[in-house]
Design goal:
By secondary structure, the chain is an alpha+beta fold. The two termini are 33 Å apart. It is built from twelve helices and 19 strands.
Length: 486
């Protein structure tokens, strides 16, 4: 497949999690842990240790888990930018900035291709459980963080349909939701109202219509990327995942009527119980803090399908960087960029990789004095920005927003007191540890762009322009070759 960026994807043959792990192994980005491990604290400790190298961490498969004979657990599948680059068909040494532009070039769901197979021919339906359901027997469970309030599924891809328009494929959502088990066949699932599933739960509450979901565990790696990507309510995550890979995604139907990946490892079918809540938490969340305890909606498991010898995929979430950050970083930047670029062609790049975009950096060509602040205000009102973007740093287009050295230079030499704007008591995420009231947050804009008319430039505003371009790039490569003795 030729992407619009001109690269040929080497990963188009990947059709499932198993394929991807084999693919990563061929690039030395996958290992099987060689020793027996305790579910706690060993699994957590290995995940944290591997995650220290977020550029090259390999995916890890555990198949000797004490207390869970025969069970398999995968962590770190999206744990490094090397793994993301390989998924995009790029060299694993690719820069974060180059991956950003490659994803931007592929941001077009119209190029999607979805295939379908009958449920009886789908690998996920090799085994079917409809009676005596027991999630504790099926899954190798452990607490992701030490003080979690229970066992969480941290990388579940949840498929749901709009109860008021169940036949609308576009309104079928796939999102990543953390799920806490409460018994062998019940769990709580917390979805903020701004998320598609939260919206569908509200519809079910108001109308009394049934809401069923299919929880996919162990998925095609592109599916996890787009389950975590903020796209429109009537846009399909399946389609975006296919377009990004430049290859078909194969779907089948779950027993309760959801479209699911035919080769996913495990699918848990469940039904929403309106009005029923249970105490959930705490949970170690992506801001690096525990979420606290709250009442959360309850779902009842009705059936389970799984492949032979299934792989349970989970994730470590905590103080960054963790797999959560590398999983959602670039695919948080890209849709924000797409919205802004459509309305403001002067936008050069968006870096919103920090804590799911709680802090973002936007590079823009300054059209006139105050223009960058206008772009910042629009960023804060994008579908993702309205809830997540909290701190925004605006820089000139010649500043690489992915290079914090350059960003700190701009922040240090170009910011005046009138370039700092704080908007209090805006909507925010409930798990923001800085929030006084859960769900309310400030919005901070720091304009570190070059001053333009009608603003006065100041006394010493002439900036050094270091040499750049192909000559400097070639010399840098020569330095590296000489360093390596080539």
């Amino acid at each position: 497949m030729n992407s619009r960026g001109g690269k040929i994807s080497q990963a188009t043959s990947v059709a499932s999690l198993r394929d991807y792990l084999d693919f990563l192994q061929g690039h030395r980005q996958f290992i099987t842990w060689p020793e027996p491990v305790m579910p706690e604290p060993d699994v957590r400790n290995v995940a944290v240790a591997a995650g220290r190298d977020f550029m090259t961490q390999p995916a890890i498969l555990f198949d000797q888990i004490t207390g869970y004979p025969g069970k398999r657990l995968a962590l770190g599948v999206h744990g490094s930018f090397a793994n993301i680059a390989l998924l995009l068909g790029m060299p694993k040494e690719s820069s974060i900035k180059s991956m950003f532009y490659e994803m931007v070039n592929r941001w077009d769901s119209s190029k999607a291709k979805l295939n379908r197979v009958e449920p009886g021919a789908a690998a996920v339906h090799q085994n079917r459980i409809e009676k005596d359901i027991n999630l504790y027997d099926l899954l190798p469970l452990y607490r992701i963080n030490e003080y979690d309030g229970g066992f969480y599924l941290g990388k579940a891809n949840v498929v749901s349909r709009d109860p008021s328009d169940p036949d609308n494929f576009g309104k079928q959502n796939v999102g990543i939701n953390r799920i806490q088990l409460h018994s062998k066949d019940t769990f709580t699932l917390l979805s903020p109202p701004v998320h598609d599933l939260g919206r569908q739960m509200r519809i079910a509450d108001e109308t009394g219509l049934p809401l069923r979901i299919a929880v996919m565990l162990g998925n095609h790696p592109a599916m996890a990327l787009f389950a975590a990507t903020p796209i429109g309510y009537e846009e399909s995550e399946f389609e975006y995942a296919s377009a990004m890979m430049g290859a078909p995604m194969t779907l089948t139907e779950s027993g309760n009527g959801m479209d699911i990946l035919a080769d996913t490892e495990i699918v848990i079918e469940a039904e929403y119980l309106p009005g029923e809540h249970r105490i959930e938490g705490p949970f170690g969340e992506f801001p690096g803090s525990y979420s606290g305890v709250r009442r959360a909606p309850v779902f009842k498991v009705t059936a389970i399908s799984h492949r032979d010898d299934p792989i349970f995929e989970n994730i470590y979430i905590g103080r960054g960087w963790t797999e959560h950050d590398t999983l959602i970083g670039l695919n948080t930047c890209t849709p924000i960029y797409a919205v802004l670029k459509n309305e403001f062609p002067e936008v050069e790049a968006v870096n919103a990789m920090y804590q799911h975009g709680l802090t973002g950096i936007i590079a823009v060509h300054q059209r006139y004095g105050g223009f960058a602040k206008t772009v910042a205000m629009r960023a804060l009102s994008t579908p993702h920005g309205s809830m997540y973007l909290k701190n925004l740093i605006m820089v000139d287009a010649d500043v690489d927003p992915f290079n914090l050295t350059e960003v700190m230079w701009a922040l240090s030499v170009k910011t005046r007191h009138e370039d700092v704007i704080v908007v209090p008591a805006m909507a925010g995420i409930p798990v923001d540890p800085a929030a006084v009231t859960a769900g309310r947050s400030h919005k901070l804009i720091i304009d570190a762009t070059t001053h333009a008319a009608p603003d006065p430039k100041g006394v010493d505003s002439f900036m050094v322009e270091p040499p750049a371009g192909p000559t400097i790039d070639a010399l840098q490569q020569m330095v590296h070759r000489l360093q390596e003795g080539k």
